[in-house]
TrEMBL record:
Keywords: DNA-binding, Phosphoprotein, Transcription, Transcription regulation, Two-component regulatory system. Residues 123-221 form the OmpR/PhoB-type domain. The keyword Amino-acid biosynthesis does not apply. SUPFAM superfamilies: CheY-like. Residues 123-221 bind DNA. Signal peptide: none annotated. This is Heavy metal response regulator transcription factor. SMART domains: REC, Trans_reg_C.
Amino acid sequence: MRILVVEDEIKAADYLRKGLSEAGFIVDVALNGFDGQHLIQEFEFDLIILDVMLPGLDGWQLLQILRRTSQTPVMFLTARDAIEDRVKGLELGADDYLIKPFSYAELLARVRTLLRRGPPRETEFFQIADLHLDLIKRRVSRQGERITLTNKEFALLHLLLSREGEVLSRTLIASQVWNMNFDSDTNVVDVAIRRLRAKIDDPYSVKLIHTIRGMGYSLEVQA
């Protein structure tokens, strides 16, 4: 499962990243509100741990932006210990509110409780022919051999696998993977497809990614 920590104190952020990673989670860290907003828009998280006092957007503002489009569980982790602050955080849509300084054991217990409450997860494992993708461990292999992908290549392959057999337009791919409107003068999608093919198709006899002329790309086993 993937957790985002939005914390401007570098030592605290590193402590949380190390502890949660050792507990088996994938952890991303943002050191200010604007970077937190960017990561939230770019990736899907199972839980967000959020400080209140942040440079740029503060935690209140970031939670309000998040709640317009997402019900991802949010835990405030902050030194703001006044009752009115706790009430404000929960009324804005936070799922939990933990005061600094805190016990790591308590934090981990609360994290696990929130994750158990979370919405049903999407499919975690994908397979087509001899290609496997593990969404949680972010691992890809073909014929049992590990394939290393960049974050964008992984997101692109995940999108293609989740829509197996469908023809995906460049516009849809650009919006889903890069969160951008497709510009016909930009070949970012074609370049990314070419690089992904070089890793998961070129070394193998069975080709999985197909160009549909004038329409886009699809991933499937063709007879």
